[in-house]
Design a protein that fits this description.
By secondary structure, this protein is mainly alpha-helical. 8% of the residues are buried.
């Protein structure tokens, strides 16, 4: 008796997210209202995914004022 191998669902397959430079993210329409935060949080010599930047912004916004 043959056993069928099931393929993982599309959401389970490894997703490859694109990385962007600080300049590209600053120019993105998605971050137009938060350019100052993005400019402060990101390093110019690194690449970031959109999800990572969103998480960094959220963490920054929830931080306590010193």
């Amino acid at each position: 008796m043959a056993v069928k191998k099931s393929k993982p669902a599309a959401s389970e397959q490894g997703k490859v997210e694109s990385s962007f430079s600080k300049e590209q993210l600053l120019a993105a329409e998605r971050f137009q209202g938060r350019k100052d935060i993005v400019n402060t949080l990101l390093s110019p010599d690194k690449q970031y995914t959109v999800e990572t930047v969103e998480q960094m912004i959220e963490k920054y916004m929830k931080g306590q004022v010193k």
